[in-house]
């Protein structure tokens, strides 16, 4: 069938996929920010799979969930994805609300019909797989608004390792502005990923 190209996700589509849920959107952002190896996986993943994996793996890492974390070390990449999806997909399905207007764009971003994931993951470069495995075993970062940064740094006695100032957010968090800012940043990150995919 050859290579095809999918559209870049819009901010409003990301909002629909996450159902504007704060924790899901936040976890998705943090997961994408820390797992840049996922860019190499995207040509073989649906958008839904990318979202479920990035958000749920970050949540598992942040909670130190050993049931999931134990799989990240030596297991096959398909087992890693399957393990994360056990929580990731129910979480995504709980909040996902795709409007009629965006259905066509949404379908173009999910070309694989959730089929043959194991075969698709076999196409991913082995270097990218090892990089993802390594990134999944790293501790999570601490994300703060600009107004919290100095205080957070002081609490850590000046250590700002893995302390992230979310400069894409308003300096002072405001209700109703946080989730849209995350959605905008998520759309921006995914827009840097390869847009081409191969249905084989």
Query: Can you tell me the residue ranges where pLDDT is under 50 for at least 5 consecutive residues?
Result: none
Mean pLDDT: 94
Q: Please, how many helices?
A: 11
Strand proportion: 5-15%
Encode the helix/strand succession as letters.
Answer: EHHHHHHHHHEHEHE
Report, as a whole number of angstroms, the end-to-end distance. 6 Å
| Strand order across the largest sheet | 1-4
The count of strands amounts to 4
Biggest sheet record? 2 strands, antiparallel
Mind telling me the C-alpha Rg? 17 Å
Identify the notable features of this structure and list them briefly.
200 residues; mainly alpha; 56% helix; 6% strand
Draw up the topology in text.
Layout: E1 3-5, H1 11-17, H2 22-34, H3 38-41, H4 47-62, H5 66-72, H6 77-95, H7 103-108, H8 117-121, H9 126-136, E2 142-144, H10 146-155, E3 163-165, H11 178-191, E4 196-198
Parallel strand pairs: 2-3
Antiparallel strand pairs: 1-4
Helix pairs in contact: 1-11, 2-4, 2-11, 4-6
What is this entry, summarized?
Helix content is 56%, strand content 6%. It is mainly α.
Would you write up a description of this structure?
The structure is a single chain. With 200 residues, the chain is mainly alpha-helical. Helix content is 56%, strand content 6%. It has one domain. The protein has 11 helices and 4 strands; from the N terminus they run E-H-H-H-H-H-H-H-H-H-E-H-E-H-E. The strands form 2 sheets. It has a two-stranded antiparallel ribbon. The protein is globular.
